[in-house]
Amino acid sequence: MSQSMGQDVVSACSPLPLGEGPGVREPAEAALELVEPCTPPPPKGEAGRGLDFADRWRELDWDHVGMSIRAKTARDVELALANPRRGLDDFMALISPAAEPFLPQMAELAERLTRQRFGNTVGFYVPLYLSNLCANDCSYCGFSMSNRLKRKTLNAEEIERECLALKARGFDSVLLVTGEHETKVGMAYFRQHLPQIRRHFSTLAMEVQPLSQAEYAELKTLGLDAVMVYQETYHAPAYARHHLRGNKQDIEWRLATPDRLGRAGIDKIGLGALIGLSPDWRADSYFVAEHLSWLERHHWQSRYSLSFPRLRPCTGGLQPEVTMTDRQLVQLICAWRLLSPTLDLSLSTRESPAFRNGALRLGITQMSAESRTQPGGYAEGDEEELEQFAIHDDRALGEVAAAVRQAGLQPVFKDWEPFLGR
Ligand code: SF4
């Protein structure tokens, strides 16, 4: 299932003509001729650290999971709804086709549990894209190395301008996003720029290439609070089909990343699957639930958040293998809340304004707004060619916050006061 590490190193080093800063990348064929030394990915597994989720994942059978979900009956759903301490088997029932007629009851229960735990609040964050350089080829992403588009990595001055533009809009919680390019946007870059960004915001999250435990521990000392590491899909054949080149081909290294985050003491860990990448969104969602259950048992000191992005068009666009309807996404959001009353559920601007307004009360606790998925997009305006994917909700922050208030909820921009410690 996973690629040999040697192959990965060659693939990751190959695209160096991507270059730094603005400029058009060379064609992939030319890139293959220019190989510079680059940092190899950290070794797989970490000797002496014990099991990680990849071990559990290997025990699970995708087809059996899919069939078990479809075998659930209305009675199983009733039992799951009545169970005060729901588990993975209940989650199976709640995401099954048999649960679709129970959506009103699920929604009512999900809303009640969310308000009990989180009060009448919705937290706001904003993605800050630092670089669109990437040494991977993912079939669903505009930043893929084989896409011919302008590449840009923000320098200190440009980062400062982005931070000031976001602060002026009212944001206080940022998610730093880069493509995966270890030599150009790796630890040296993060060491240099994290403290600078940290000074502006009270909460700092990252969505970058998987790192080692020691690297996460170091970034924590520089102010890192949370890391999102979406598995994309837990279906090995689909994962191989959609990850065509680069370190990301190593599914097991990615599967074990949240374990390394937990061991490094990162406060919050984000999980999720990209819906539409595999042939069965229900099975993928169940695998995410298995992953969450594993992590909560092994790394209970960390908090967890979840996203359920649906595949959106991008440069060189890909059609989803399956389409999830709005109603099915509502079912999934409610099922997650019923499984875990404490889980942060996040809804990004991939979804439409109408859907986001409607889903607000069900269980969503985190939203992004005014997102720009290209480096420099906040201070320098739109350059659509650089986008990672097309966003669906382009309302200004004020409009989204007004919709939140209209739903009877309070928008929250500051989640934590750093001097209280973590
Ligand atoms: S999904 Fe991530 S790793 Fe894949 S091409 Fe896009 S930025 Fe690179």
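^ iron/sulfur cluster complex. The radius of gyration is 21 Å. The longest strand covers residues 121-131.
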